[in-house]
């Protein structure tokens, strides 16, 4: 069975909500913090409902609505979400109120909305969809776990259309904590300079993305999700290469069949070394693409990579802003491999292919 990507809605540090702008005009953020570029929420959400939504809920619900608006599906057979940190702002609000001197009269609203499944639940309520609704909280595997669940449900015949997404937010407090722990790169004039400055640290990011996966084909499909594989704490580079070979073998492919590879380089010299070693095993003429200089680093950033690869396949072009190593771009993009790892612990492969009936 082929798994098709029917619709996509994404809100990120770039103006990705604009369908006419596929990374043509890049948003350069100042320093090492990449907040999302807000879409016109009032044109998408009910203003009365929107006033009650925190930032992450607005991001997630809007991404889901944009995704479904691209399709003829009003209610999916499942809503599956991946998030590593959940509703951080609401958690902070509740904890700060709990720790204050006036903590005897706490309102439950912030606590209720601080749970990790809040975004998925809100989408289900707005769509009046009481089907399977699940949220995965697996650090760097959160989004991929949601994808895997959806793929298995489709293949087992438990539905034909699955709404799958990822959402994580960055607050002032979470940004300060990462900065204090030395996780962020200092001295950046603009966020896209992460590869020109050696050393440790990354640019912090956030985002929300939803994909409608379908077991049926449609003329407007973006691409086929033809491969998905995860490795937890691989022993060495050989283990990573074995994971790559597993993905290729499952599709009866060779390395030479890949038309481009998207990697998650983030500017941290220790983490990027893993990517550099991985690229050394690839044919020299394969274009190498990146995305974290555009999206920032966060646990579910691989959703941005899946969006980018899917649009590359559908539009049969690669934006200049995504190219890390300038090589001859193939005249036809049939298979794009995504390889990402989060802090050297969670390693994932995704294969995105051209739709062929």
Structure description:
- This protein is an alpha/beta fold and 357 residues long.
- It folds into 2 domains: 4-214, Thiolase/Chalcone synthase (Peroxisomal Thiolase, Chain A, domain 1); 225-353, Thiolase/Chalcone synthase (Peroxisomal Thiolase, Chain A, domain 1).
- The chain is 33% helix and 20% strand.
- The protein has an 11-stranded mixed β-sheet, sandwiched between helices.
- Strand 10 (335-342) and strand 11 (346-353) form a beta hairpin.
- Helix 3 crosses helix 6 (118-127).
- The chain is globular, with a radius of gyration of 20 Å.
Give a short synopsis of this structure.
The chain has twelve helices and eleven strands. With about 350 residues, it is an alpha/beta fold.
């Amino acid at each position: 069975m082929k798994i098709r990507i029917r619709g996509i809605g994404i809100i990120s540090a770039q103006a990705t909500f604009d369908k006419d702008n596929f990374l043509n005009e890049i948003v350069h953020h100042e320093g090492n913090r990449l907040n999302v570029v807000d879409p016109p929420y009032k044109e998408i959400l009910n203003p009365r409902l929107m006033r009650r939504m925190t930032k992450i809920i607005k991001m997630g619900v809007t991404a889901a609505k944009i995704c479904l608006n691209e399709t003829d599906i009003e209610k999916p057979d499942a809503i599956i979400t991946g998030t590593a940190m959940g509703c951080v702002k609401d958690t902070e609000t509740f904890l700060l109120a709990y720790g204050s001197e006036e903590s005897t009269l706490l309102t439950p609203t912030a606590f209720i909305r601080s749970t990790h499944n809040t975004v998925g639940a809100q989408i289900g309520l707005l769509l009046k969809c009481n089907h399977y609704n699940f949220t995965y909280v697996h650090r760097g595997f959160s989004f991929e776990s949601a994808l895997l669940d959806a793929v298995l449900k489709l293949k087992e015949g438990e539905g034909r259309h699955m709404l799958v997404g990822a959402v994580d937010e960055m607050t002032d407090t979470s940004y300060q904590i990462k900065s204090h722990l030395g996780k962020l790169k200092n001295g950046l004039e603009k966020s896209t300079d992460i590869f020109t400055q050696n050393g440790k640290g990354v640019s912090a990011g956030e985002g929300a993305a939803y994909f409608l996966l379908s077991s049926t084909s449609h003329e407007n499909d973006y691409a086929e999700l033809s491969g998905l594989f995860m490795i937890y704490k691989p022993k060495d580079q050989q283990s990573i290469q074995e994971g790559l070979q597993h993905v290729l073998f499952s599709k009866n492919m060779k390395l030479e069949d890949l038309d481009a590879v998207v990697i998650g380089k983030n500017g941290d010299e220790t983490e990027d070394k893993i990517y550099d070693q991985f690229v050394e095993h690839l044919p020299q003429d394969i274009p190498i693409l990146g995305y974290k200089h555009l999206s920032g680093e966060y646990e579910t950033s691989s959703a941005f990579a899946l969006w980018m690869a899917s649009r590359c396949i559908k539009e049969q072009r690669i934006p200049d802003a995504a190219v890390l190593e300038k090589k001859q771009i193939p005249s036809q993009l049939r298979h794009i491999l995504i390889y990402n790892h989060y802090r050297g612990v969670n390693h994932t492969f995704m294969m995105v292919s051209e739709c062929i009936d």
